[in-house]
Amino acid sequence: MFHIDGGDKAGSGNTAHVCDECGKYTATKGALEEHARVHSKVRPYECTECAKTFVHKSSLTIHMRTHTGELPYKCLHCEKAYPRKTHLNKHMRTHTGNRPYMCQICGKTFNSSSNLCAHTRVHSGRTGAADNTHAKAHWREAFTVPAMWQNILVHRTTDPTHENPHRGETVPV
Q1: Which of 10, 42, 105, 130 is the most buried (most CB within 10 A)?
Q2: pTM of the model as a whole
Q3: Which residues fall within 8 angstroms of residue 165, CB to CB, at 6 or more apart?
């Protein structure tokens, strides 16, 4: 863990603290120290109900909702409520019609990345649980939708048989 001084007065916000493990920048030393727990085995926040431990206090707070049933994020358009804001945001797309995930092959759009991932089977001819494992493996290989599709497009254009590395078989594309 180290910091980079931007040369301005202390407190000006121009000092960056950088994680030695992954290179992440944080604005404060405290934030860097909290981030460093991700790389260690230190999990100081423990659930009083089930003894599960967490790196961040916010993760414990969200987890506690599984025990209490608290659903603080409520939809303004219907009766649904959720334990996480991200779940509400995803639900809101059903009301707004926002479909930010697009298939790079056919242009069809989806309201969630999981629906886009399931759609990939249309182009590969795969169906069923074993094929879902294949699709998930591609998602784990890439962190963004465009990168994931670049990987699949390379398979489709350079290897017409698309050898499946996950099951050791060759499948038609």
Answers
A1: 105
A2: 0.52
A3: none
- The domain tally of the chain equals 2
Which residue range forms the structural domain that includes residue 28?
2-39
Q: How many CB atoms lie within 10 A of CB 70?
A: 13
User: Quick check: is 136 in a domain?
Assistant: yes
Within a 10 A sphere around the Cβ of 83, how many other Cβ atoms? Answer: 19
* Residue 26 φ/ψ, nearest 5 degrees: -130, 155
- Asked if residue 162 is part of any domain, the answer here is yes
User: Can you tell me the distance from the alpha carbon of 124 to that of 169, in angstroms, rounded to the nearest whole number?
Assistant: 14
pLDDT tens digits, one per residue of 35-73:
898 899 889 999 999 999 999 899 999 999 999 999 999
Helical H segments across 12-112, by residue range: 29-36, 57-68, 85-96
